[in-house]
From TrEMBL:
Pfam families: DUF2480 (PF10652). InterPro entries: DUF2480 (IPR018914). This is DUF2480 family protein. It comes from Olivibacter jilunii.
Amino acid sequence: MEIQENIVNRVANSGLLTFDLASLKSKAEVAVYDIKDNLFQGLILREKDFRAFVKENDWSKYASKNVLITCSADAIVPTWAYMLLANKLEPYVNELFFGDKKTFEDILFERALSNLDIEQFRDQRVVVKGCGDIKIPESAFVTFAYKLSKVAKSIMYGEPCSTVPIFKRTT
């Protein structure tokens, strides 16, 4: 039996380009503003009380953060209340959103993907990293695959040593 002297890293020499969507995750701190805390008896919003709160509150504590406005209570909140919050938060926040946390994450990744230079992947064999410490919304994988399909030579999912083929350009 012959012992091979040189260990060859076939993955490193494969010409695969690995891209981790987690690199697109916003670094800004996330803060959730739940309007339920402003509801009278957890049911209704009193305009006079709410306007006083909005006027007196220190909104600077949201400086440079991504802020999600939501209402976790089963209550009818008038649209103007959300607009008033948006107006007061605007000078301070990095990004402002309304909705649930999943939609919030989807939108952040969509924005990051819209700013990504897809040309860097032209005619490349791309592996989209599948596992990691950061949860990536499925919508980000869908959007990225859609964009990559226009320029990449091939798309795979997973890790370079174990991939699932997604797409291969035949021409």
